[in-house]
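User: Reviewer 2 asked us to show a designed sequence for the structure in our supplementary figure. I'm pasting the structure tokens here. Could you produce the per-position amino acids so we can include them in the response letter?
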């Protein structure tokens, strides 16, 4: 049931009328909140497994209770550098792969919304990466980039503008 969308994301129904269903800020915020909950759960499960394995001697223990990776309980060693890369990579991999492979994260699936190009096609891996970089910029500026969403015709935040994408209701 793929719909062809025009430049503004309008889909033609059987009678030829156009139905524009851009996603607003609130539903996108709910989807993002669900994604954060999923990511926190995944990281906590993996962290617990990592901690269990370290405590049982299966691999190098976590640098806890010494606190920071750079102090106490393990310090700046290869195992902890690998852990940092692994745990730090979960967030970008989740968003980049989920958007590139289907235009939807688990949060977007739950709310039946999808990321598409501004002409209604599935986004590419490059657009997905650019979109994640845009997320990072928006987050580092305390959400200023998200404030564009209600004021643009295609309901695009800075991350959407950078990647030439928009979010549509299914």
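Assistant: Here is a per-position design you can include in the supplement:
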């Amino acid at each position: 049931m793929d719909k062809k969308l025009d430049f503004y994301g309008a889909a033609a129904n059987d009678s030829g009328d156009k139905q524009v269903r851009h996603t607003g800020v609130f539903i996108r915020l709910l989807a993002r909140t669900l994604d954060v909950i999923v990511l926190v759960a995944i990281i906590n499960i993996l962290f617990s497994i990592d901690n269990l394995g370290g405590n049982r001697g299966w691999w190098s223990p976590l640098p806890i209770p010494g606190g920071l990776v750079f102090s106490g309980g393990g310090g700046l060693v290869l195992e902890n550098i690998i852990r940092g890369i692994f745990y730090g990579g979960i967030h970008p991999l989740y968003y980049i792969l989920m958007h590139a492979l289907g235009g939807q994260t688990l949060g977007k699936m739950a709310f039946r919304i999808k990321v598409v190009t501004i002409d209604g096609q599935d986004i590419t891996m490059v657009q997905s990466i650019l979109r994640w970089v845009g997320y990072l910029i928006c987050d580092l500026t305390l959400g200023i980039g998200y404030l564009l969403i209600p004021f643009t015709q295609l309901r695009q935040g800075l991350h959407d503008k950078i990647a030439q994408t928009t979010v549509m209701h299914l």
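For the response letter, you might also mention the following. Strands lie at 10-12, 18-20, 113-117, 165-169. The first strand starts at residue 10 and ends at 12.
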